[in-house]
């Protein structure tokens, strides 16, 4: 027995998978502002002070320096959320990639890098 599915027109696109869509004469504007604010709240950094760069390009981030993070699942969750944020923020892609290299054994300096990206 075959089923038939009907498509339904939901009108103009405004919000999809955490991305806000705004139309203008020049095209579409995609924004993840609310998504980023939710990540900041989850990390307890809603009122943090911003920084000018997402990563210190002169510093190396070894994998075994510093104590392990108390909650590795929070680290992984924040890193994954930042990966999704690179859809509309390609400027943080390198920094997020550096964070993701340490998902198997996150340390405090790695968590500090996540917090720096969030402050950016």
Briefly, what is this?
The protein has 120 residues and is α+β, with helices and mostly antiparallel strands. The chain contains four helices and three strands; from the N terminus they run E-E-E-H-H-H-H.
What features would you describe in this structure?
It is a single chain. With 120 residues, the protein is α+β, with helices and mostly antiparallel strands. The protein has a domain of 75 residues. Helix content is 37%, strand content 11%. It is built from four helices and three strands; from the N terminus they run βββαααα. A three-stranded antiparallel sheet has the order 1-2-3. β1 and β2 form a beta hairpin. α1 runs antiparallel to α2 and α2 runs antiparallel to α3. The chain is globular. The N and C termini lie far apart (55 Å).
């Amino acid at each position: 027995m075959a089923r038939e599915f009907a498509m339904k027109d939901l009108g103009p696109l405004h919000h999809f998978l955490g991305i806000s869509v705004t139309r203008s004469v020049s095209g579409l504007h995609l924004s993840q502002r609310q998504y980023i604010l939710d990540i900041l709240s989850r990390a307890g950094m809603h009122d943090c002070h911003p920084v000018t760069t997402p990563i210190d390009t002169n510093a190396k981030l070894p994998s075994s320096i510093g104590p392990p993070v108390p909650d590795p699942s929070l680290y992984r969750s924040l890193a994954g959320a930042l990966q999704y944020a690179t859809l509309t923020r390609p400027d943080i892609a390198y920094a997020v990639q550096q964070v993701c290299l340490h998902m198997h054994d996150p340390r405090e300096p790695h968590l500090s890098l996540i917090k720096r990206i969030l402050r950016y």
